[in-house]
Amino acid sequence: MTTEAAVRPGPVPSADPASGRTACHEPRTSPAPWRSLGTVAGAATVYGVHGAAGRTRWKCFAGRRQLHSPTEAVEWASVPPGGLSGEHRHTRTEEIYLVLRGRGEFLFNGRPHPVGPGTLALTAPGNVHGLRNTGKDDLDWWVIETLAPGTDAVLSGAAHHHPGVPPMGEAVIHDLFKERTVSTGGVFTGPLRQVEVVELDAGERTRLGAPDAELAVFVHEGTGRATADGHTAALAPDTCLTLGASTVTGVEAVITPLRLLVVTLSVPRSAPEAS
C-alpha cells in the first residue's frame, strides 16, 4: 500500500428532511492535496434517522463528488446512551459499520449482536441493519457506503434495469483490532475491498496509497501529520482523509503512537488519476 492525495476541507452537510439525514455537498474551495480532509467538529444533529426516535450526530467527509470509486459516502455517526440508528433494508448499496468507541448491539435481520471498539460489521444488499447504544457512553462509528455493481451500472447508464435485491444472509462481523486486516471478498462485490489497521510508534513513518484504489483513512488514536505535494495536515483523533488513486501520502506519528483505520476503495480502470 502507498498513496499521494488531493484534499478539499470536509464536505458541508445540508438538511434533507425527507430522508431524516443530511446530504453531502462538496464545498466551494480550491483543491488541496487530498480528495477530502475533515474532523467530526461541527457534526450535524439529526433526528429520526432511519425512522428511529432520538438524535444522531452525523458528519459526511466525502461522497460521489469527491471520489472516483463508486462510493456513496464516507461518514461518521454517534448516538447517545439508549440511542438507536433505525433498522433499514439495503437494496442498492453495500455498507460497513466500524465501531470506534462505546458499546452496543448491531441489529442484523432482526437479531442483536454485541459490538464494541473495533467491531466491523459488513452489510450486503438484501439485508436489514441498525445499531443500538446499550452502554453508558456515546456510541461512535465510521460508515462507508458503496454502490453495488448493479446499482452502479444503472446509474452510469450501462444497464436499464436493476438486477433485483438478493435474499437475506447471515451476519458478517469481525473484530478488526484482533484480525488487523479484513477482506470483504465473498460478501461485497463492489469497490470496498479491504479494511485494515495501521499502527505507528512515536517517530515512525509510513506511506499510504494504491495505484488502483482510493483510500479512506480515519485516525482512531494518537497524533501525527500527513504530507503530500508540499502540503501538511495535522492528524488527531477523529480526523478523516481520503486519498486519490495513484497518489502517495506520507504519514508520521510525531509525539504519540498513531492508530489509523484504512479502507481500500477500488476505482474503475477508466477513472482519471487524482491531480
UniProtKB/TrEMBL annotation:
Pfam families: Cupin_2. Transmembrane segments: none annotated. Residues 1-36 are annotated as: Disordered. Residues 77-144 form the Cupin type-2 domain. This is Cupin type-2 domain-containing protein. Keywords: Metal-binding. The keyword DNA-binding does not apply.
